[in-house]
Amino acid sequence: MKKEDDLFYVKRTQRDYSLSFKLQVVSEVESEELSITGALRKYGIQSHGTVLNWIRKYGTFDREFQIQRIMSKTPEQKILELEQRVKLLEKQKSSLEKQVEIAEEKAIFFDMMINIAEKDLKVPIRKKSLSEQSKSTRKNVKDQ
User: Which keywords annotate this record (predicted)?
Assistant: First the structure.
């Protein structure tokens, strides 16, 4: 029985990462948002060497000569980056739309509550327009 279990269990020592993920990690490390160790912790990457290989392969900074090298990105890389950007912007848009919807519902609710309170308590809650005396005072201040 033990030998049969061993046949089905495969220890996984390597994780597969998408190209867009690799490019994101490399850009964060190169822009100094994260250190390599920070990227390992943040994303659960197994090895320091993995990130170093990604930087060598996809990075735009030559560490040996401490100069920025211009790597032309393949059309596939550009498309992947743009697709990731579009997805991020769509998420942000939907989040903001939800926040606006909630804010509008709150405004309607509060307006209804004020109407009920004014009607039941017969107390004016809404701010009234400026009285004649306040308007004349404001004009005197502007004139001076």
Answer: Coiled coil
